[in-house]
């Protein structure tokens, strides 16, 4: 952002900086004791540091001071945990974690020491760290230094409920209030998109403004709404950016009015009411279905998108398109519908298989899927999104062809192996229905799982995992298997 609009706030490393400041490939061979002890072994890649090791702390402080010196103009210096759950189990770290009620104890004790050292040389430089997953709870006795910024992360939340009174978010609300009581520099890391697939509807609109005001009430000095930065055709991404930007500038603004203002200006006042009705409808549908609206996991995410919901949702878009006052507005409305189309095409193969298996009519609650696939391919190629999910480059043609292949496979005949088995005794899953953890997030050169060509497979591809790790890298949400009518 240019200076006249506020400029840019620069945080060294942004987050998960242990490995950036003290990379294992440089320090582990000579000093394995500086790294986490996990199941009796010191681990460099894909683990945390041994946070109570005093020699490591001294070296880490030197490295941190060097980073600040070489990066003038920093707003904050991030000293934050790696993105994994492999915390050190050595007697010293384990004892401190036990005494303080969790991993926030050794983490904050370590960060405080680094922050004190930074303050001696750079008294105006804040040191930031994450209260994230295993370190989210407030430690029992350790308190952050005045120059320590706590970034409290709500990655586990149900984003279909408010932070203040959503029953599924009660634990996070408790942590928020407790960090607010002890931290003078509290910031919120708020997850505002569905990172497994940026394109599908993510009905978290109802509480965006309310949550921001609640963060302010609990003395948050800033909020970072992490959204679908990489995707330009996601779920009302332009409106989200507009509304959240306005609310962060002035939390007292009325988010409903901000939504109306954007919808009227971007899609036209004739079409805007139908789109607002659509947004309200999908929020209501998700809440009535009582589905936990997470931000990362695939399991159950689409369960609220029933045939009845699709039928009504498409009707809102049809009304908006019919009312469009210009070709520009009409094109924007069609582009916005791609989110609903993505969910429809993603869900369709499983529903076709279910109908074929039980001798029911094929789904007919949405657009004719063959023409829709052709149109979908053309539009995604036109708009050129770079990612469809976090850290997953968007292969436009590949993704669209996989949808096409999955639908065709669902329309195919019953597999020979199941020909003599009753329809309620078997189920077919395609590789595209699995969540793949493709690489080690701490070392992207280490592959965990990938799709490979396989002529013998029904859709021409299969999941391949090298036999060099024990990670659960291919996961399938067994939603269909919970059907009481199934008898496996």
The chain-level structural class is: alpha/beta
- Give the overall shape, derived from the CA principal axes: globular
CATH classification class of the domain at 3-252:
Alpha Beta
CATH topology value of the domain at 3-252: TIM Barrel
**Order of strands across the widest beta sheet?**
1-4-5-6-7-8
Residue runs with pLDDT of under 50 for 5 or more positions: 478-488
The helical percent reads 40-55%
| Cα gyration radius (Å) | 25 Å
Distance between the termini: 57 Å
User: What CATH architecture of the domain at 3-252 do you see?
Assistant: Alpha-Beta Barrel
Main sheet, how many strands, which sense, barrel? 6 strands, parallel
Quickly count the helices.
Answer: 14
> Strand-residue fraction?
5-15%
Report the mean per-residue pLDDT as an integer. 90
The total strand number stands at 16
Order of helices and strands: EHHEEHEHHEEHEHEHHHHHHEEHEEEEEE
Describe this structure in words.
There is one protein chain. The strands form 6 sheets. A 6-stranded parallel sheet has the order 1-4-5-6-7-8. A two-stranded antiparallel sheet has the order 2-3. The protein has a two-stranded antiparallel ribbon with strand order 9-10. Among the domains are: 3-252, TIM Barrel; 428-488, no CATH class. The chain has helices at residues 18-21, 24-27, 54-70, 91-100, 104-121, 170-182, 208-217, 237-249, 255-267, 272-289, 307-323, 327-357, 369-383, 396-411, and strands at residues 11-12, 37-38, 41-42, 76-78, 127-131, 148-153, 186-191, 220-226, 387-389, 392-393, 435-436, 439-440, 443-447, 450-453, 461-464, 474-475. Helix 9 crosses helix 10 and helix 12 (327-357) crosses helix 13 (369-383). Strand 12 and strand 13 (443-447) form a beta hairpin. The model is unreliable at 478-488 (pLDDT under 50). It is 41% helix and 12% strand. By secondary structure, the chain is α/β, with parallel strands linked by helices.
